[in-house]
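testing teh design pipeline on a random one, pls ignore if ur not involved
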């Protein structure tokens, strides 16, 4: 089994995975947002280095853009809050601003160990793996399968840290005794969490959310006694409409933002909360944001021919703007619909295998650590750190002990 685990390559983990959506840097933010809300994946990818290579050369690095990234882009700048329509009309390359997660393109035959090492590189959150296509060629009445690889990002699938951890979890017995040790003894409990109090302004959570996106966690929301009461999670935001949620961040407290998000996902925010948002926005001179709550439509911002989305077909059925008119689907990737109060938490004495099982069951890449007695927030366990611990064990000598 140890040899079998070590023999895996990146393409082995890509069977059945869909193509990613890759957008040119000139794509308007509104069009990227429409693609995110209409698609099944929680992120799109933007070429990070278009000027440094020829047009026919595949990019090696992409910026991963999610709904939460766009929310941070709009809410994190006073000018964007004052004129959100103009912000949504700018190129999607403006969203990253050096903070977006990096995705690196790797060869399909990259070994599992090298794939893990790439994901542990600073800033790398995902790998783009070219899909292997098959072409049938008739030869002497027999069909021979000839694999070929398209270099374009649109012909790739994505592997995240969660995907690798899930794969390794299937062979968790080979990581004994490390898997049975506590997360505290393994040094996996990070104390530098991103947290706000429920009474803090929602806008104060935006810089923390940007940092959480960079390290694959979320923003914890705590009460006056530092007990964990909820979170503002990129995964939950992936199912939200950006324009009203941006307005909520600009007008409400962090606790009320949680309520607004939960209500908007289940049915609709209560009218008194919507009126409160509008009143607060007008008091703060954000009239354009208040108007956008009712009138914004991603498809209303026209695309120029030079900024059209990359696609294998020009039909409305395949274009992100065409898909934006269909009902949104629940994400089939790392994120799904859940309440902001539905947090995944453990204790410092929880075993590594138990924490991994918790995170994978809830499809998140982190687990909060709380005090067993008081419920106070202690820290967080991240998949990036879990992967580093498992990587130390993945070599023939360790797995064959």
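output:
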């Amino acid at each position: 089994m140890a040899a079998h685990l070590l023999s895996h390559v990146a393409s082995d983990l890509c069977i059945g995975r869909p193509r990613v959506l890759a957008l040119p840097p000139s794509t308007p933010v509104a069009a990227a947002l429409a693609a995110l809300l209409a698609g099944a994946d929680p992120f799109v990818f933007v070429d990070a280095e278009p000027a440094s290579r020829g047009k026919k050369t595949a990019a090696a690095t992409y910026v991963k853009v999610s709904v939460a990234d766009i929310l941070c882009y709009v809410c994190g700048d006073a000018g964007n809050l004052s004129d959100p329509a103009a912000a949504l009309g700018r190129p999607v390359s403006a969203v990253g601003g050096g903070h977006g997660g990096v995705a690196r393109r790797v060869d399909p035959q990259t070994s599992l160990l090298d794939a893990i090492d790439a994901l542990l590189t600073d800033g790398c959150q995902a790998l783009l793996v070219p899909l292997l296509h098959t072409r049938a060629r008739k030869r002497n009445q027999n069909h021979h399968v000839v694999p070929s690889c398209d270099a374009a990002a649109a012909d790739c699938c994505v592997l995240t840290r969660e995907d690798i951890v899930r794969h390794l979890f299937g062979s968790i017995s080979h990581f004994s005794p490390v898997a049975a040790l506590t997360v505290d003894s393994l040094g996996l409990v990070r104390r530098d969490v991103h947290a706000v109090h429920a009474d803090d302004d929602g806008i104060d959570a935006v810089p923390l959310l940007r940092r959480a996106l960079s390290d694959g966690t979320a923003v914890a929301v705590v009460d006056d006694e530092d007990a964990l009461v909820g979170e503002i999670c990129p995964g939950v935001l992936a199912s939200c409409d950006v324009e009203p949620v941006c307005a909520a961040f600009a007008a409400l407290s962090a606790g009320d933002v949680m309520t607004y998000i939960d209500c908007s996902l289940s049915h609709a925010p209560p009218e008194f909360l919507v009126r409160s948002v509008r009143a607060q926005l007008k008091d703060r001179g954000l009239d354009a944001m208040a108007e956008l709550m009712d009138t914004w439509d991603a498809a209303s911002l026209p695309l120029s021919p030079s900024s059209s989305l990359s696609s294998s077909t020009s039909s409305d059925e395949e274009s992100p703007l065409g898909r934006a008119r269909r009902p949104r689907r629940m994400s089939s990737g790392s994120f799904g619909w859940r309440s902001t109060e539905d947090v995944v938490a453990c204790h410092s004495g929880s075993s590594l295998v138990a924490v991994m099982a918790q995170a994978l069951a809830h499809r998140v890449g982190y687990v909060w650590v709380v005090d067993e007695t008081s419920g106070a927030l202690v820290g967080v366990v991240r998949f990036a750190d879990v992967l580093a611990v498992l990587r130390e064990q993945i070599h023939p000598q360790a797995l064959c002990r």
